[in-house]
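Recall the central idea of this unit: under ordinary conditions, the amino acid sequence of a chain determines the structure it adopts. In this exercise we apply that idea directly, starting from the sequence alone.
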Amino acid sequence: MTLDLLILGCGFTGRELIKRAHARSWRVGATSRRPEVRQHIDNEGAVPFDWCAGSPLPCDAERIIVLFPPSGLDSRQV
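Accordingly, the structure predicted from this sequence is:
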């Protein structure tokens, strides 16, 4: 699956970006480790992913926005 936008670490800002991306008719995915946030992502019409920073990306994307705090990771891992 290839998306137009993948948001890594989706919270308040990520959910706003989902709305803006949908206005452009982009296919969007977003990650969160929290089930309740993944439910919000799904309700917004994006594909939710359970993903931990440093792991391989859950899908291919044309654009990636990183919104999680990179604590403990080096730039290659991020």
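The mean pLDDT is 90.
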